[in-house]
């Protein structure tokens, strides 16, 4: 059976690393070192090993800043394949982030802060912007995002990190979707007592045909041209 097959522990650790990176969107060696309580050199070695196998992609867009690591399609397939073992939870339905020069510093800071919060509050659930957008899309309502009204337009803003309270039997970690109210009954269509009388079209005046202008000079010019070369 699939659940009884043996999976090597190094492969499971690598798949768990891929799942963690997918949840973060983009992770740094410093964030991974803070999360797993290892040195930054050891975390960088693990990430570079996954890059050599094609499971992660290294993005170094800023000079003097640490590199960002994102998940490739091969890495997603590996993490999905061994998620049934229960060693980790693979986040489904997340979009692939794009590392740009404009957002690189922001993504580095978010990865470090999230790793520190998860280490300090292990009983809480920390979700990023990608996971929050997925949960709101699945439940069809706002969970932590707010609507900002500006000059004549509205836009939605999602926080970078959300810390959910510990899950209890009465209150889950993520708010459950609210039950939708039943649809309101539509009133029956109203029928008119007296039918409408069709409108009679107004007669339009006939258009007057104007004589063509410059008809005779054109003929004369053509006649002179022919008589000149004939």
Commentary on this structure:
- 39% of the residues lie in helices and 10% in strands.
- With 230 residues, it is α+β, with helices and mostly antiparallel strands.
- A two-stranded antiparallel sheet has the order 1-2.
| Average residue-wise pLDDT | 81
Oligomeric state: single chain
Structural class: alpha+beta
Largest sheet features: 2 strands, antiparallel
Distance between the termini: 102 Å
Query: In percent, how much strand structure appears in the residues?
Result: 5-15%
**Count the helices. How many?**
7
Say how many strands there are: 6
Low-confidence stretches: none
Helix fraction, binned, reads 25-40%
SSE run: HHHEEHHEHEEEH
Strand order of the largest sheet: 1-2
So what's the overall shape? elongated
Rounded Rg: 34 Å
Question: How would you briefly describe this protein structure?
Answer:
The protein is an alpha+beta fold and 230 residues long. Helix content is 39%, strand content 10%. A hairpin with an 8-residue loop joins strand 1 and strand 2.
Key attributes of the depicted protein:
two-stranded antiparallel sheet; alpha+beta; single chain; elongated; 230 residues; 39% helix; 10% strand
List the helices and strands and how they pair.
Blueprint: H1 9-24, H2 29-36, H3 40-52, E1 56-59, E2 68-71, H4 73-81, H5 104-120, E3 125-128, H6 129-139, E4 146-149, E5 154-157, E6 161-164, H7 215-229
Antiparallel strand pairs: 1-2, 3-6, 4-5
